[in-house]
Amino acid sequence: GQQVMQIPQYQHVQEGEDFTTYCNSSTTLSNIQWYKQRPGGHPVFLIQLVKSGEVKKQKRLTFQFGEAKKNSSLHITATQTTDVGTYFCAGGGGIQGAQKLVFGQGTRLTINP
Amino acid sequence: KAGVTQTPRYLIKTRGQQVTLSCSPISGHRSVSWYQQTPGQGLQFLFEYFSETQRNKGNFPGRFSGRQFSNSRSEMNVSTLELGDSALYLCASSVFVPNTEAFFGQGTRLTVV
After folding, report:
1. Around Cβ B109, how many Cβ atoms within 10 Å?
2. Total Cβ atoms within 10 A of residue A10
3. What is the rounded CA–CA span in Å between residue A11 and residue B38?
4. Do A33 and B33 touch (CB under 8 A)?
5. Chain B residue with the nearest C-alpha to that of A98
């Protein structure tokens, strides 16, 4: 079945450093979503990418969807302590896979202030 | 607009018992998905319901079941609980399909002793 791999599993940075997490799917995706889960919280939707090669920005966060629609990345510039949490990518399949999201394992980000 | 509501928030059960968890989606959302989250396995898809019909199912044993009511509220049931069922169970609602933005509830933390 469809698998979504996410790396790294953990990342510890100094406040102000950049952070990137990568997501790779075993199959072509119709879209990819990114979620953030704060410690003790629940996943919260960040963004959805649909088009091949799409790049979207939200303030210090930059999201990319690969040309083949099988990989994606999230880059945070100049991290702040509020960025702490686990970032998940979630792949949406085609019509047949519309009824489920396949989540990556997540990247847990910790920040040294 | 009220968010996704899951009850109860915390539950402690004994091995061999059964448990029912409840999820009330956002008003107007007809798709409800369930996920199991554990530290080692990340977010694992359980099943998805739409208009009282299960449209997709993950790779979980038959002890895990669910249903959806005409008002879109959903329940999941786990019978013959095992220690390994201890996890955070998350419910997510979407307008039509999870292949778009999913809104998660706070989750039910189940501990099996």
Report:
1. 15
2. 11
3. 19
4. no
5. B99
Exposed/middle/buried for residue B113 (C-beta within 10 Å: 0-12, 13-18, 19+): exposed
Q: pLDDT tens across A89-112, in order?
A: 999 876 556 678 899 999 999 999
CA dist list (Å): B14 to A62, B9, B11, B49, B96: 45, 17, 10, 28, 36
In the prediction, which pLDDT does A67 show?
A: 96
Distance between CA atoms of residues B87 and B90, nearest Å: 9
Residue B40 is predicted with a pLDDT of: 73
**Residues pairing with B108 in the sheet:** B89
Contacts of A88 in chain B (CB under 8 A): 42-43
Question: How much of chain A, in percent, has pLDDT values that exceed 90?
Answer: 85
Residues belonging to chain A: 113
Place of tokens 């409800």: B32
**What does the pLDDT average to over B92-96?**
91
CB contact under 8 A, B48 and A31: no
Query: Is residue B85 helix, strand or coil?
Result: helix
User: Which residues on chain B place their C-beta less than 8 Å from a C-beta of chain A?
Assistant: 31, 33, 35, 42-45, 48, 50, 55-56, 58-59, 90, 92, 97-107
pLDDT at A98: 67
Burial of A18 (0-12, 13-18, 19+ CB in 10 A): exposed
Whether a cis peptide bond, with omega within 30° of 0, leads into B8 is: yes
Quote the tokens at residue A10: 């953990």
